[in-house]
Amino acid sequence: MIDFFQLLVGAIALGAIYALIALGFNLIFATSRLMNFAQGDLAMLGAMVGVTFGGTLKLPFPLVALAAAGGVGLLFFLFEFAVLRSFVRRKATLTSMVMATLALSLFLQGAAEIVWGRLEHPVPSPVSAEPIHLGGVVVSPHYLVVVGVSLLAFAVMYAFFRGTLLGKALLATGYEPESARLVGINPTFMVALTFFLGGGFAALAGLVVSPITFAAPWMGLSLAVKGFAAAMIGGLGSVAGALIGGLIVGLLETLGAGYVSSAYADVFIFLSLMLVLFFMPSGLLGSPLVTGEHF
Amino acid sequence: MPSSRLVLSAAAAIFVLASAAPRASAQEYVLGLSVPLSGQTAFIGESALKAIRLKIEQINENGGIKGHKIRLDAQDDKCDPTTGVNIAQRFVNDDNVVGMLGPFCSAVSIAVKPIFARAKMVDLTIASTSDAITKDTNWSFQIAAPDGVYARTLANYAADHGKRIAVLNDTSAFGLGAYTTVENTLKERKANVVAHEQITAGQPDVSPQVIKFKQADADFVIALVLGGDAAKLCLTSRDLGFKAQLAGQTAWSFPNVLALAKGACDGAIFTDPFDPTKPEAKAFLDQYEKRWNERPQSYFAAAGWDAITLWKNAAEKAVDGSGKVDQQKLLNALNDVKDYKGAMGVGGATINFSATNHIALGVEGTHLRRISGDKLLAVEEAKK
Fold first, then answer.
1. Which class in CATH covers the domain with range B25-145+277-353?
2. Bridge partners (DSSP) listed for residue A121
3. Model's pTM, two decimal places?
4. Preceding omega of A141 cis (within 30 degrees of 0)
5. Which of A233, B198, B304, B336 could connect to B48 by a Cys-Cys bridge, CB 3.0–4.6 Å?
């Protein structure tokens, strides 16, 4: 039983990270219907900010987190502003914009290799490395940081959508872009805002996971794939879906490895994804955004 | 007029001297070296480069190779295959380059292998451990022990010392290849294997695997994982109170892994083709220390030293009538190397090449060492 709780600790921490990546995916998808393939590499960039600002310059963690989320968010906003909008002006299809995010992903990976090298870097944690013993279960204090940061991000987004006009306008843009425009909401601004937020949350996820996984230029792919699975399982475009999907992916990965076989941990994730999509094509929380309006 | 004749003869003398100078340098041999000198893998190349430079100084002081002085052309390949291929192309296209040492990283060595095979030029790779380095080519040699040898050494040691053995591998080409070797060796030795787990290289959390090893009550873990994954295994084992002997490949002792593990890998053992206490290694390290005021702990310097020494011995037999180093003769001379005792290897292991074997060290040439802080200690152990 102790082993189950031990696995659960790891599963929740991983799930919190995947949820944060999925949150970014969903925000961007909700307003723009765009699949962002660069999500994992934006997370990697966040981790690399941690290497330089936290490891080399030894700045305090909150400042590093702010720099990572703000800096990467701004970078992704600029990508939207400079690249994707010129695509829109030239009436490019959504598919070519998705390919542009794939190009950005490869570019970021290559650039990170040149700047930081190919090997893993340590990233300092804001808390002590001395593990906490709860009964027989060992909890690394940084796992609490991971879960805390992720929950905080979700709480802020919840308050944003429920309590602010801007948040409600953003939701409206997601559900009914045309009607939103009619009541005076600027969809272009809303899309730009979600790119900033999506990039920022990805960077935050990469930064908080990197003291556990280390930071390396190739770390983005597995984060993106798991985050994407989380977004799909929970329901694309849904904030609560991202949280639930993330936790499910974390549990499947860790418990699958712990109880069945570590060779098939990833198989469980994608098998479950297929099952969920087969029976509930719009994900567990039934996002109205993917009910096949374009087909 | 005598004065004008003087000027003329002086001019003639200068002309003769000037034209003689390039001819002297044309007889100089250029030795190409593809080596990582910048970026994160620079630590692999630095000490080997110093060993090679030291040897070249010694060769040149003693009159060079049949009168030809050696000039080293060291190019930084950053352990990057693309850069390595460009460097290799340049070396094979340059007629002055008569020898080739390096690369040091498996990916680069594999990428340049066909270039040297096509150009029919001998290449002595230095620290590359992939099993593929010497396959499908007659022109590449491997000074470091290959992964398969490390895997067998680990499995043998585990069979001798582990009562309940667990095996962990990543699903990369390295991990899967090494696992096959370990599995076969453990079966042959009828060792008691209690668990086998796999990870994806770069997997965020290895605690499920460590928990399974703990449940299986393993006392010895053969871990066929590299870099950050090795550090993660050490850290997770320490946090979860899993106290089995962890054992890995030589890359566990590299500074990048030790920095990531922050001391958690202390006490872990790793396979190594280098014993600094054996007489040949000691003699080399003494010379190295005298020249550079430091004593390397890792095998890279010794590998560089053995590579250039083997090359020099063979090149002396391969100088043809026109003063060129004949690559076919060089290859034959290296294929004839028998019972060579180098700075690399342990105990009485010798290097024996043949037309079909270009691997310097086998299982008898590797042993295990222990990580202790920033020191690498010998694990006193009779070899099977």
1. alpha beta
2. A215
3. 0.86
4. no
5. B304
